[in-house]
């Protein structure tokens, strides 16, 4: 059996930030989950629907692994990524790191993991691996999936080899922290303004504040979009609140990130952004509840109300990001 020593298996809400937390704490850098999410410029929005989808998807964060790339770039950390089409080489890559005493991040399809209670295909899932024996591997996943867990080597091989939306080719990665840990002052400003710019200027109407507005229009017809509203609408609401989002489609995490930043940066623009995202988080939870109620009752008025709140959220989040985008200006920030 091979196992990395001194692993802090603290589980958190979101898979990618949970994994980053494990990798960074092992090297002495302990950041809260909201700080990891915010420094990774993780907040976003996407309304995703197509003919081959059973039901529309509302996403609240950037695409898988972009958060990791953003975080390491912002903090000046060394990110080493390995990918291969060979299952044998993919295993050798991670086993060598574990044997050398380093935990490793893996991107895979959660559908194949033995311990996963919800069998949904998701190729953008991320876990931290810290040990293995002849039969099993030892992982850290989110709190809702059990934290420190084990799965068979065979199931891990299937999960890493899966192909489809958001999958990667046996992707594994490590993060190296420099001897002098990075200061957060100023780096939070960069992360916030990068996130704000992307949110305010999306390339297509399905993203950012424009995507939220579009969702407000489309959600009103969701009872006609499905042949099983009792299944699909509560499932959509569950994904918004419980599926690793930290609640409120990641808005709780971003609200708490901004609250931490107010202790580091003296800015009225930052305080405005925090206040507006605190309001937005509450409204997103209301939207999820209305969508679930519409599925259970068949009452289209719930979806009309949800659409109205989404319209307000598009404006509210646009105003929040406009304030936050000013953090980089000379008068907007005093560190």
UniProtKB/TrEMBL annotation:
Domain named Butirosin biosynthesis protein H N-terminal: residues: 14-142
Coiled coil: none
Span of domain DUF4872: 155-324
Superkingdom of this protein's organism: Bacteria
A Pfam family it matches: BtrH_N
InterPro entries for the chain: BtrH_N, DUF4872
Descriptive protein name: Lantibiotic ABC transporter
Organism: Streptomyces glaucescens
